[in-house]
Write a structure and sequence with these properties.
Length: 301
Amino acid sequence: MDYAIQTKGLSLLYQRKLALDDMTLDLPRGGVHAIVGANGAGKSSLFRVLLGFESPTAGSAAVLGCDSGALTPALRGRIGFVNEEHSLPGWLRVSDVTAMQRKQYPRWHQARFEEVLGNFNVLPGQQIAQLSRGERAGVSLALALAQSPELMILDEPTLGLDVVAKRAFLESLMFTATDNDATVVYCSHQMEEIERVADNLVIIERGRLRHMSAPDEFCERVRVWVAEFPFKTPDLAALPGLLEVQQIDGLTHLTVFDQPEEFGARLKLMGARSVQSMSTTLERAVNGFLRRGHASAKRAA
Ligand SMILES: Nc1ncnc2c1ncn2[C@@H]1O[C@H](COP(=O)(O)OP(=O)(O)OP(=O)(O)O)[C@@H](O)[C@H]1O
């Protein structure tokens, strides 16, 4: 299979902090891959290694079939990158940056640039430093999409965008992925966005790959059981697949992963008077999944 991104046993140690821990990840070419994880899970670190800004401490990383430590200028030209800082030279005008990029990228798509930028009230004569945060985001997204890259890597690109701009951006992103056969790799904390655009969901936790599947498939494997325990709620910690327990209006809500229907019978054996299972949203499923390993959950325990 042809992979856009491939890592093998990838580790990255910053001083004494292990940001990536023996991560093996294969992302096939095409489609939108969403990477999610708690704060500090290693998403940006993964991108930094993939783009050759950091060298792995162990293992390897390849992008479009090339070792990430040896990306040539020609290969970099096939990769678009947008990060949350939207770092563009502040002293230049929007029109200057656009002219520079148009010259640099042979597959420059002027109509796409104008379409994406048209969602923002940006004047070509404005200096980058004069733009609002969201407008700067709009400019860097328009520049990146107009490069018609084979691979787009986006680190929380919609942070700070208003609802309309966010929607416009996501539409452009999906259009890029389908129209251009491009691969989009995108990290975000916003599940409703991911639900809308992602073909593949990649969950990382403490620098390790924890799960990869289509978002729908992941959601189907997570269920919420609502149980009524008329007497004392038993100790539920040892239940298999348990992600999260919440007490809501006197009922016990259990978010569980990969459990058969018999899970309900098990709750009854533990004293539940009634049990009911429900499907859940991607947001709740991912949150439940991540909560187990989250620093705050560990502190609460
Ligand atoms: N330059 C650095 N020096 C030391 N530690 C770092 C450095 N950059 C990141 N880290 C640590 O590496 C870990 C992974 O950080 P990273 O920025 O990759 O996380 P992230 O998943 O992108 O998080 P967030 O969602 O908060 O942006 C964190 O524990 C962070 O504190």
